[in-house]
Design brief:
Pfam families: Snf7 (PF03357)
Radius of gyration: 51 Å
Number of strands: 0
Largest sheet: none
Main location: membrane
Order of helices and strands: HHHHH
Structural class: mainly alpha
Number of helices: 5
Number of domains: 2
Family: Belongs to the SNF7 family.
Organism: Amorphotheca resinae ATCC 22711
Distance between the termini: 117 Å
Keywords: Endosome, Membrane, Protein transport, Transport
Shape: elongated
Helix content: over 70%
Length: about 200
């Protein structure tokens, strides 16, 4: 379980960040120790004053002041260390972004190579436009040469070919007038006669 080596290698950057964070933790521990010492020196100064030993109280306050100056220096060092750690971590993020951009650019260039470059795309677009224009010319020429009667004959021939292929004969077109048309004409005559009769 814990005996197998990790598949993720620790880089020099990872080690440097870890070292800086360890140093930060040590500085925090040092600050806590100094704070305890300053509190103790203050308590000693109070105790010495209560006993009437002013020189020892003064010495304790001087040691307290010295410890406070060390604490201020530690704060400044801690701030610098935290800024440096943040800068290194941000630089690593930037490095990853740049690597991602490089990879994306490489993939994009490969895709462009597969497409044949800009000249190939322009040639292809030109060829397509030429083919469309040629097809229009052919359609216009054929359409202009045929009359409506020719077009009807072509349609009839197409229908006949479809009937041959499917084996289903097409119904014949009636040559006599339809009954419904005759009825409509008769009704119209009756209505006209009724109008004439009403007017008279």
């Amino acid at each position: 379980m814990g005996n197998t080596p990790s598949s993720h290698k620790i880089s020099a950057q990872d080690k440097a960040i870890l070292d800086m964070k360890n140093q930060r933790d040590k500085l925090h521990q040092y600050q806590r120790r100094i704070t305890v010492l300053t509190d103790r020196e203050r308590a000693i100064a109070k105790e010495m004053l209560a006993k009437g030993d002013k020189p020892r109280a003064l010495l304790a306050l001087r040691r307290k002041k010295y410890q406070e100056s060390l604490l201020a220096k530690t704060d400044a060092q801690l701030e610098q260390l935290e800024k440096l750690t943040s800068s290194v971590e941000f630089a690593l993020v930037q490095k990853d972004v740049v690597f991602g951009l490089q990879q994306g650019t490489h993939v994009l260039q490969e895709i462009h190579k597969e497409m044949g470059g800009l000249e190939h795309v322009e040639k292809l677009m030109g060829d397509t436009a030429e083919a469309i224009a040629y097809q229009r010319e052919v359609s216009d020429m054929l359409g202009g040469m045929m009359s409506n009667q020719d077009e009807d004959e072509v349609e009839d021939e197409l229908n006949a070919l479809e009937a041959e292929i499917t084996g289903v004969p097409l119904p014949s077109v009636p040559t006599s007038e339809l009954l419904s048309k005759k009825r409509a004409e008769a009704r119209q005559r009756e209505q006209e006669e009724q109008k004439v009769a009403m007017l008279a």
